[in-house]
């Protein structure tokens, strides 16, 4: 039986992960029901040619614009590794150089390599300010400890990504840099007052919003000064009040994975989805289990049917997703030969000495 129009409208607010390197039955059913796209992890990635073939198969199977995303930051968070991909340093090293033009070139290189495989959206850059040496999850993923440095270089890298045809996603709003716990494992809490947040954590996100870049990702973190006891992903005050109204951001707002323990250990996926939608999330990541993905969609359908979630909220999310799709999402294509091309080598060589201190030929060989 074909899904109802409402079911498809709700399914569109989801991007899912899946096991393995092929389109399984669960993923195929969710694609038929209207999900917006899929995110690939290490478990999905093989060689460059295998990953490109999977991206092509996903888009062909969908038979419509279908967003493919990945976390490719550089440093320790990079799903695509080894030849022919360019090994990039942690963003902390870029931050220490303070060179916006260099950060933009890194973004262009990331986009070049991702587009060659068929990806449309990179969940980068990290806009968290690295103010806490004890932070177990951000650390050298951040451009540094100074909010202005993170803002300048984060915006520059995002502009490079988008100039290369890949949507950027700044993360994790409104800031995960000063936590002492990892939201993959527990629900972190920040007790800073709003003045401190505006002076430190919010500076890069404000710059990102003013630059009109594609998307931001929420943090599964409690911010006592904003809405005590409610994770930012589910907080109307944080997302609608602070991000939309105060900072003026009108791009796509995507949740971090709803299956992370920061959410899953404290809320049902049903409640997290409904409350997150009401708070202003446009697209939910549910990255592992098909039954959880299905429950989340069905919960949103029921919430719209009952009147708890207004249809206008779906329309608003669709408008933003439409804009991202129109600009960045491409049909299946064969661009794998661009990896190792003269353009690719030139991009890699241009970064070699300034980013890594290595001889340019080393990076050129790594890019073949």
Please, could you describe this protein's structure?
The protein is an alpha/beta fold and 368 residues long. It has a single domain, classed as Alpha-Beta Barrel (TIM Barrel), CATH 3.20.20. Helices cover 46% and strands 10% of the residues. The protein has a 5-stranded parallel beta sheet, with helices on one face. A 3-stranded parallel beta sheet has the order 7-9-11. α11 crosses α12 and α14 packs across α15. The termini are far apart.
User: Helix count, per DSSP?
Assistant: 15
Q: Name the shape in a single word.
A: globular
Quick one: how many beta strands?
12
Order of helices and strands: HEHEHEEEHHEHEEHHEEHEHHEHHHH
Outline the low-pLDDT stretches. 358-368
Using brief descriptors, characterize the structure shown.
five-stranded parallel sheet, 15 helices, alpha/beta, disordered C terminus, TIM Barrel, 368 residues
Give the SSE map:
Layout: H1 5-11, E1 14-16, H2 25-33, E2 37-40, H3 48-62, E3 67-70, E4 72-74, E5 77-78, H4 91-97, H5 100-117, E6 121-122, H6 147-163, E7 169-173, E8 189-190, H7 194-199, H8 202-210, E9 215-218, E10 222-223, H9 236-246, E11 252-254, H10 261-264, H11 269-279, E12 284-286, H12 290-306, H13 311-328, H14 342-356, H15 360-366
Parallel strand pairs: 1-2, 1-12, 2-3, 3-6, 7-9, 8-10, 9-11
Antiparallel strand pairs: 4-5
Helix pairs in contact: 1-12, 5-6, 5-14, 6-8, 9-11, 11-12, 14-15
Summed up:
The protein has 368 residues and is α/β, with parallel strands linked by helices. It is built from 15 helices and twelve strands.
């Amino acid at each position: 039986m074909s899904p109802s129009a409402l079911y498809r409208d709700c399914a569109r607010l989801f991007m899912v992960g899946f096991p393995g390197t092929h389109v399984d039955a669960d993923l195929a059913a969710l694609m038929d029901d209207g999900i917006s796209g899929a995110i690939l992890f290490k478990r999905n990635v093989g060689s460059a040619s295998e990953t490109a073939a999977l991206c092509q198969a996903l888009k062909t199977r969908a038979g419509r614009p279908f967003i493919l995303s990945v976390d490719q930051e550089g440093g320790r968070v990079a799903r695509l590794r080894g030849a022919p991909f360019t090994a990039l340093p942690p963003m902390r090293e870029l931050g220490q150089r303070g060179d916006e033009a260099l950060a933009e070139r890194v973004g262009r290189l990331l986009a070049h390599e991702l587009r060659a495989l068929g990806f449309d959206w990179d969940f980068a850059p990290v806009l968290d300010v690295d103010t806490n040496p004890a932070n177990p999850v951000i650390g050298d993923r951040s451009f540094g400890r100074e909010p202005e440095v993170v803002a300048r270089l984060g915006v520059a890298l995002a502009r490079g990504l988008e100039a290369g045809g890949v949507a950027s996603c700044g993360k994790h709003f409104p800031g995960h840099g000063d936590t002492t716990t990892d939201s993959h494992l527990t629900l972190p809490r920040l007790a800073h007052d709003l003045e401190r947040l505006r002076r430190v954590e919010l500076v890069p996100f404000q710059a990102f919003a003013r630059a009109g870049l594609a998307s931001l990702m929420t943090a599964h973190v409690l911010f006592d000064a904003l809405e005590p006891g409610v994770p930012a992903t589910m907080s109307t005050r944080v997302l609608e009040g602070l991000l939309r109204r105060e900072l003026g951001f009108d791009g796509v707002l995507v949740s971090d994975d709803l299956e992370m323990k920061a959410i899953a250990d404290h809320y049902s996926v049903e409640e997290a989805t409904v409350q997150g939608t009401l708070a202003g999330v446009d697209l939910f990541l549910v990255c592992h289990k098909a039954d959880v993905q299905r429950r989340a969609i069905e919960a949103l359908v029921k919430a719209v049917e009952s009147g708890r979630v207004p249809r206008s909220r779906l329309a608003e999310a669709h408008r933003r997703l439409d804009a991202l799709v129109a600009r960045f999402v491409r049909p299946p294509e064969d661009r794998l030969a661009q990896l190792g091309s003269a353009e690719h080598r030139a991009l890699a060589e241009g970064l070699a000495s300034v980013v890594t201190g290595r001889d340019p030929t080393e990076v050129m060989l790594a890019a073949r």
